Amino acid sequence: MKLLRHNFPLKLLSFLIAVTGWAFFRYTNNPLLASQYDQQLSVPIVAINLPPDEVAEFSDKNAVVTIRANRDAAPIKPDQVKAVLNLAGLSSGVQNVPITLVAPNIAVQSLSPGSVTLRIERIEHRLASPLIHYTGVARNGVVVSKLLPDPASVTLQGTSGVLAQVAGVRVDVPLPQSPGTTDSMRRVVPVDVLGRRVPGVSVTPDLILIRVTAVAGEGPQR
Q1: Whole-prediction pTM value?
Q2: Which of 79, 85, 77, 22 is nearest to 50 (CA)?
Q3: What is residue 78's three-state secondary structure?
C-alpha cells in the first residue's frame, strides 16, 4: 500500500483499470442499451397551412431522421414520422421555415435539415388571345382569307414569377393547300419573347378550334 501511494505509474495504472472495469460493467450488462440501436429514415417534407392561391417552392424534398429503436420490436416505418413545414401566416417571398417532426412515442435522436429555405409566390390568372403562327409552305396560289379561333381567348394560370415570362400564347396552324374551309383542334402554347415554351403555366383550354377559310389567289401576271 505504501508502494502504491508513492509510485505514480502504479496509481495511473490502477485508475485506468478501475475506469475500464466500470465501463465494462456499465454498458455490457445494461440490457436496455444492448437492446436498442439507431435507425435512420428518409421522410418526405410536407408544407401545410398554405392559402389555396399561393404555392411554396423548395429544393429539399426529404429529411433524414435518426431515431432510437428497440431490437426486439418491428422497425419504425417512414410513414410513422412526418416532417412538416407550417406556412400559416407567412408572406410572399423567401422564407426560412423550421421543420416540425410529428413522431408520437418515438425517440428522435437527430434531424437533418433542421429548416428549409423556400419561396412563396401567389398563383395568378391572366387572359390571352392566341397568336397564329402559320407553318408549312403555301402552294398553288392558295391564301388564307379568314381565320377564326374558338374560343377567342384562353386563361393562363401560374405563379407571378412564371407568368411574367409569358409574352403570348402561340397556335401553330398549317397553311392550307387548296381552297375551302377546314376545322382543326390546335394546341395553345405559352411562349416567351424568343418564342420558347414557358414551363409551369397551365392553359385553359389547351386545345382550341381553328377554322380556316382559304381561297385561290391571283396567278402570275403574263
Answers
A1: 0.62
A2: 85
A3: helix
